[in-house]
Amino acid sequence: MSVPPRIGFIGLGIMGRAMALNLVKSGFQVSVYNRTRERTAEFADLGCEVASTPKALASMCDTIITMVSDPAAMRAVIDGPEGAAAAFSGGSTLINMSTLSPDYTVELSKKCFAAGVAFLDCPVSGSKGAAESGQLVILAGGGAEALERASPVLRAMGREIVHAGPVPSGTALKLCINLIVAQLTTALAESAALAQAQGIDPGLIFRALALNPALNCGYFALKKDNILKREYPPAFPLRHMLKDARFMLQAAGKKRLELPVTAAAERLMTRALDSGYGAKDLSVVLDNLTEPLREKENA
User: Does residue 168 have a cis peptide bond before it, meaning omega lies within 30 degrees of 0?
Assistant: First the structure.
């Protein structure tokens, strides 16, 4: 009988917190590290060990899971004298579930290979609600054997695993999925803005979509209150999708592929970021789209 892994979880933000809690609920031995230490308090209350540094976490665990915001945050917890890589040892596993760039994911894989550490590239599809309910879809890149060994851990956080191929296939697939999410969201925001400009109730859009089996998309239902109430609690913060959109454009550019609609969405999201909306849900782009309408009403 195999010994259950000792899991070290790095990154307790909106998604990471829910994922780590699901691991605890599933009975795994979990230790945590987070740059903002206050976020570790509830895990300490649950009996989880709280590490003072990523290196300390890696030294006490044989499986490290990272769920951080971007490559800069990843480098901060992996590299340096107190980074997790300083305590990497042969036979350990690093599972990255953050959305990074394909290039950086390959770099991370090579670093793990040199240290004798198995690496899995496992970003997730799904936002806050799916993370809390353990219904994430895990988009996996890496070796089949390493993925099989890690599957009980992954299935504690998600309902399905899609093995896309070797590293960085998980990240590549995640960018493809998030391209659709970005365009669905901006399309919904533009549709609501057009309804407002024509003097009709944006709620009629959702009513019509729900009545059409071909267009009755669960994602639209998730964003309904955001659009109609003009409130944007961060299920998927805009700044994170903007980061992903830039990765998409970089990946496409390397292959001389044009993504004109994604490029337009990136410009809209940049405008929203410049408006101070980075921490709000991606659907906040609606506020930027309707600025001219508000200016006309207030004139």
Answer: yes
Q: How far out from the chain centre does Cα 196 lie?
A: 31
pLDDT recorded at residue 298: 65
What are the residues facing 233 on neighbouring strands?
none
Q: Which residues are catalytic?
A: 174
SS3 163: strand
Placement of tokens 């990136």 in the chain: 266
| Domain spans, the chain | 6-167, 172-298
Q: Quick one: pLDDT at residue 1? A: 43
Q: Indicate whether this model's pTM tops 0.90.
A: yes
- Walk along the chain (299 residues) in steps of 10 and give the mean pLDDT of each run: 84 97 98 96 98 97 96 96 94 96 96 96 95 98 97 98 98 98 98 97 98 95 97 96 98 98 98 98 97 67
Q: How many CA atoms lie within 13 A of 228 on its CB side?
A: 14
CA distance 23 to 28: 6
For residue 263, count other CB atoms closer than 10 A to its CB: 13
Selection from 153, 151, 96, 148 nearest residue 119 by Cα? 96
Task: Provide the residue count of the chain.
Answer: 299
What class is the 6-167 domain? Answer: alpha beta
Tokens of 56: 């300390």
pLDDT at 299: 53
With vertex at residue 67, the alpha carbon angle to CA 117 and CA 17, rounded to the nearest 5 degrees, is 130
pLDDT recorded at residue 4: 81
Residue 133, φ and ψ in degrees, nearest 5: -95, 0
Domain 172-298 fold is: N-(1-d-carboxylethyl)-l-norvaline Dehydrogenase; domain 2 (1.10.1040)
